[in-house]
Amino acid sequence: MKRLECLLIAVMILNVWSESNAKPVVVLEQTAAPSAVTHRGDLDASRKKFIETKRGTVAFIGGSITEMAGYRVFVAEHLRERFPDTEFEFINAGIASTCSHTGAFRLRSQVLAQKPDLLLIEFAVNDDQDAAHDEANAVRGMEGIV
């Protein structure tokens, strides 16, 4: 589990939309252990909202990896390029040194109150290293958010 969230975020967001705006396709890297990945759906509702309304709210919640100018900035740039006619609002709910348990408690006020169309969650480093959660506690925190 440890750093799988980072891999999944990068892969799902950067590879999810096909070039023709057709139904999204999720491509998982070979480095991800198939037993650790459960594909539950796609991001088609977000894609349709971005195209049809030309507006979109995208929220990011996580620890320092989310807070810093890293994947969050790259995802925002990718979405602006992918949907040039869409006006985006990006919410940065990243706070350094916080784990998924803390994220579950701040989700409502810092993210859901903004009514996002797409939510990206990343607590891999903080759950693993800062909080030293075992797999069960990391899953518990992520389930609290989901």
Task: Sum up the structure in keywords.
146 residues; 3-stranded parallel beta sheet; alpha/beta; 7 helices
- How large is the share of residues in beta strands? 5-15%
The spatial strand order of the largest sheet comes to: 2-1-3
Weakly predicted, low-confidence segments: 1-31
Characterize the main sheet. 3 strands, parallel
Secondary-structure blueprint of this entry?
Elements: H1 4-15, H2 44-53, E1 55-62, H3 64-67, H4 71-82, E2 87-94, H5 100-110, E3 118-122, H6 124-130, H7 135-145
Parallel strand pairs: 1-2, 1-3
Helix pairs in contact: 5-7
Characterization of this structure:
The protein contains 7 helices and 3 strands. Strands 2-1-3 form a 3-stranded parallel beta sheet, sandwiched between helices. The protein has helices at 4-15, 44-53, 64-67, 71-82, 100-110, 124-130, 135-145; strands at 55-62, 87-94, 118-122. The chain is an alpha/beta fold. The longest helix is centred in the N-terminal third of the chain and has 12 residues, at 4-15. Helix content is 46%, strand content 14%.
